[in-house]
Design goal:
With 387 residues, the chain is of the alpha/beta class. Helix content is 38%, strand content 14%. It contains 12 helices and 13 strands. α10 (293-314) packs parallel to α12 (370-385). The structure holds pyridoxal-5'-phosphate.
């Protein structure tokens, strides 16, 4: 038996059309599209065409909650705890709108390794009284946990941090951050975009207050669906000011005046859901649930280790943790002319990306063969030598 055929997860390879012709190592950015999305989109169009406005009652209204539950099941969230939104930035805004930054507890602690959109959002909250404290990385790969923990104090309201850092794939010690935050009465918003679907996430074991992400990367769900988990006890009492008719106890009564909040998950939603995106997300979520994140993680650790070994053979800089327990699904590798090298790989139909301060990012997923890693790294070698 060859190494390739002994890999049980390759059974799902045929579900992803792009893998037939492309070396797809960019699931940290956009997961490959499952072929089931064609049927999902046809089903969406048929429903709209044949059922018209009745589609709301028959299928569309509850879709946001149903897809939320499918996402929630992957993170050990109970049914009803996950609402769906357009993206992570919106999820952060919904969370922010549940809190008051005009009093003494107005500090927001985060790190410069957060995804920039999240950073831009929180920096802008200074206008509403938020006192933003940014903890800076020392090595460009990790976040100094002790300094982050020290910054979380009795005046801290929120700690929006990434579970897995997008630039380096460093896995933060979420448990330690959450424990410290809870000791001083602060709340943690964990961005699980780069973990869920690749690195196990258990919101109950973590006792995290909020978790958010999107489905388009490791969950192979396409753009347009972000998710927000709210811990059930908080979900019952928080009142998001970024709200709308979907969050009303009786949306269809079109009551005048202030909102009367319904229960989660709709309590955290606002206006009309992104129905086509929710439909497109389902085939990927189903496959990830079938494959199982534990198995994905096991394979990912091996394949990312292989990428690091190949980078070491060439003497390139590895900007991701070497300890597999601290490393998510991506390996960032820097070499001379890395941006041009990336461009050349794209021309050869080897899909990776390049980011400043990271280098070429390679992200094998459960559907990638070991051979594809060798092919990609061989191409990097050739491209780097020809400069
Ligand atoms: C950790 C992380 N958070 C957030 C985002 C994106 O945020 P949004 O969904 O608001 O576009 C990304 C990447 O696209 C990311 O890697």
């Amino acid at each position: 038996m060859t190494r390739e055929t002994s890999d049980e997860l390759l059974r799902w390879r045929a579900e992803f059309p792009i893998l037939e012709r492309t070396t797809y190592l960019i699931s940290n950015s956009l997961g490959a599209m499952p072929r089931g999305v064609y049927d999902a989109m046809k089903g969406y169009a048929d429903t709209w065409a044949t059922r018209g406005v009745r589609a709301w009652e028959e299928r569309w209204w509850m879709l946001a909650a149903e897809v939320g539950n499918e996402i929630g099941a992957l993170m050990h969230a109970p049914p009803g705890a996950v609402s769906t939104h357009q993206n992570v930035t919106t999820c952060q805004a919904v969370v922010a709108s549940c809190f008051d930054f005009s009093g003494k507890r107005n500090k927001v602690v985060y790190s410069d390794m957060n995804f920039p959109s999240v950073m831009y959002f929180w920096e802008a909250q200074r206008a509403y009284g938020a006192r933003v404290h940014m903890v800076r990385t020392e090595d460009g790969i990790t976040v100094p946990t002790e300094r982050l923990l020290d910054a979380i104090d009795e005046t801290t309201q929120l700690v929006p941090v990434s579970h897995v850092i997008f630039r380096s794939s460093y896995i933060q010690d979420a448990k330690a951050i959450i424990e410290k935050a809870h000791r001083v009465g602060a709340h943690v918003v964990l961005d699980t975009f780069q973990s869920l679907g690749n690195v196990p996430v258990d919101v109950e074991a973590l006792d995290v207050d909020f978790a958010c992400g999107g489905v388009l990367k490791w969950l192979c769900g396409g753009p347009g669906v972000g998710y927000l988990y709210v811990r059930p006890d908080l979900g019952k009492r928080l009142e998001p000011k970024l709200t709308g008719w979907f969050a009303h106890q009786n949306s269809m009564a079109f009551e005048i005046g202030p909102i009367r909040y319904t229960d989660p998950p709709f309590r955290f939603m606002n206006g009309t859901s992104n129905i086509p995106a929710l439909e497109a997300a389902r085939p990927g979520l189903k496959i990830i649930a079938e494959v199982g994140v534990e198995r994905i993680r096991e394979k990912s650790k091996k394949q990312t280790a292989r990428l690091i070994a190949l980078a070491d053979e060439h003497g390139w800089t590895v900007n991701s943790p070497r300890d597999p327990e601290q490393r998510g699904g991506t390996v960032s590798i820097d070499m001379p002319h890395a941006e041009e090298v990336c461009r050349e790989l794209l021309q050869r139909d080897i899909l990776v990306d390049w980011r400043p301060k990271a280098g070429v990012r390679m992200s094998p997923h459960f559907y990638n063969t070991d051979e594809e890693l060798e092919v990609a790294m061989g191409a990097v070698g050739e491209a780097a030598c020809s400069r």
